[in-house]
Amino acid sequence: MSDDSLAGKRVLVTGASSGIGAETAKLLASRGARVAVHYNRHKEAARAVVESIQSSGGDAAMLCADLLDPQSWHALVMQTLQSLDGLDALVNNAGAIIESKAVLELDRNAWEQTFTLNVEAPFFISQQAFNYMQKSNGGKIINISSIGVKYGGSSTSLHYSAAKAALETVTLGLAKAGAPYNILVNAIRPGFIATPFHASTSPGAVERRIEKIPLQRAGDPLDIARMILFLLASSGDYITGQIFSVTGGD
Fold first, then answer.
1. What is the set of active-site residues?
2. pLDDT digit string, tens, across residues 194-217
3. Are the beta carbons of 92 and 185 closer than 8 angstroms?
4. 10-246 is classed CATH 3.40.50.720
5. How far apart are the C-alpha atoms of 192 and 144, rounded to whole Å?
6. CA-CA 20 to 30 A from 193: which of 23, 103, 210, 216?
């Protein structure tokens, strides 16, 4: 068995209909994992991810949940346990900026919804996963943060970066709580990645952003997926409580 084998591992990837989540789901499945592909609005895109996995001989299930609804958090984990017959790893990838607004224009709705999606949902989904994992020989949890934590975000994304900073703190706390049960918890801080997340960014702004990256290119979703694979495979069995930057040197 190769060092990056995930044969038989059962993994939930949130926000897996496109971008980092989609590439992660496909890569993990290609290494033998059984993957629950979570989506919210983009059903056909999620179906395409599942069909791609299945056509390559992999095993995937498609699960829908609106993570802005607290009632969905427990239900999503329960659906995963039922679909995959258990859970060995969780990738909290789903996240978004709810209303890009300048600092003086930020209102409580944008702030609270952004924190709900990017901090509360990952924490309480992790809590449910943790509850199962501590009774079944451990597991792994990976939270997807953002390079915005390093810089405080852009002029219109302070609330998103603040939420991701909180998610990194949640990562450290969960890692300490999980260690006695062999539940390993880490976070990945992606840099500027070429995904639909940046679809509304003007071409000129994209070029200026890329100029600031030492490697002089945007990252690919696969760059993040490979780091996730590294942590979920046996290569990550002695790693917990860490924040990994995958940013092209940014």
1. 160
2. 887 655 566 678 888 888 889 989
3. no
4. yes
5. 13
6. 103
